[in-house]
Structure formats: C-alpha cells, structure tokens
Amino acid sequence: MPEALNMALTGTFKYVLIPADSSEPIDTREGDKSGGLSDDFLAKEARRYFFDQSGGDARAAALENASPEEKKALADQIRKQAADAAGGGAGPHKKSQMDDEALINKVRGTQESAAC
C-alpha cells in the first residue's frame, strides 16, 4: 500500500458556502481534514446547516410540546404516509404496528439533531 494512504490527514481545507437564499452572502469557510472520510467534516457541516435552515429545532420543540390529541393526529398522519409510500396498504408496516408514543419518539429522534 502506498505510504500516502497510511498517513493520517491533518490540517484544514477551505470551501465556499453558497446559500440557496440569495439574500444571504456567499461565505468562504474552513474545515478540518482530521476526520477523513469516516468522520467527514463537510458532510457533518452540511447536515447541521440544512437542519438549522429547515427549522429542525422548532419542529423538535413542537413535538415536545404537542398535546395528546396533536400527537395522535401526527401518528395517524405518519402511518398514512408510510402506507401510501408502500403502495397503499400492501401488507403490514412497522409504523402501523407501533403505538403512538413510540412512533412520535422515533420521529422526534430524527428532528432533534442534525445527524442523518
């Protein structure tokens, strides 16, 4: 194996953030190479950016503060979307078998962090 492949990555790299919102400025930023591809700085930064831009914190807070009726309606909506995505009820779905609280907790987990 070539010696270059055995070396740990060090240092930084520069990249340009071009926001989708044209009212926001283009920004030159710096990232850390040390994570390599297994702990990719740019991928983590992109997930964090899109989480922030899409209101992830607000959605997580809304789930946390939802009334039992709102949670029930949301759980029913998630089940319907899952059934529709699977071809309109072509067999049992994991989401259809989960109780409301478990389903809400699963969704909450996707809303509370920028991780995929």
How would you summarize the topology of this molecule?
Blueprint: H1 3-6, E1 12-17, E2 27-32, H2 41-53, H3 56-64, H4 68-85, H5 94-97, H6 100-111
Antiparallel strand pairs: 1-2
Model description:
The structure is a single chain. The mean pLDDT is 80. This protein has 116 residues and is mainly alpha-helical. The radius of gyration is 20 Å and the shape is elongated. The protein is built from 6 helices and 2 strands. Strands 1-2 form a two-stranded antiparallel ribbon. It has helices spanning 3-6, 41-53, 56-64, 68-85, 94-97, 100-111; strands spanning 12-17, 27-32. The longest helix is centred in the middle third of the chain and has 18 residues, at 68-85.
Proportion of beta-strand residues = 5-15%
General form: elongated
Give the low-confidence spans.
Answer: none
SSE string, helix = H, strand = E?
Answer: HEEHHHHH
The largest sheet has its strands arranged as 1-2
Radius of gyration: 20 Å
Helix-strand makeup class: mainly alpha
Total of helices: 6
Distance between the termini: 33 Å
Helical amount: 40-55%
Topology, number of strands: 2
Mean pLDDT rating: 80
How is the biggest beta sheet arranged?
A: 2 strands, antiparallel
Quick rundown:
By secondary structure, the protein is mainly α. 52% of the residues lie in helices and 10% in strands. Helix 3 packs antiparallel against helix 6 and helix 4 crosses helix 6 (100-111).
List keywords for this structure.
mainly alpha, 116 residues, elongated
